[in-house]
Amino acid sequence: MIRLSEHNINSLTELLDSPASTFFGHVLNVKIFAHDPVERPNAIGILDTISRHLPRLKIKSLHLSGVKWDIMDADIEGIFRCLAIISALKMTDVMFSVPNQFIKFITSFASLERLSLRKITLQEVDIAHITPFTLSPLLRFVEMTLNSHLPWFLSAARFPPLNYLKLALITPEYLDAIQALLQSSGPSLRDLNLAFVDIGAFILGCWHSSSPLL
Amino acid sequence: MRSSWDVGIQAHHYCDSGGGGRVNLRQNTRLRYLRISGILGTILLYIVSHIDSFDLETIHFKLAGSNTRNIKTVEWKQVAQVLTQPGFVKLQNVDLDMDCYSDTESHDCSCVGWVAYIRARTSILDNILHLSVCHFD
Question: What's the ipTM?
Answer without folding.
Answer: 0.86
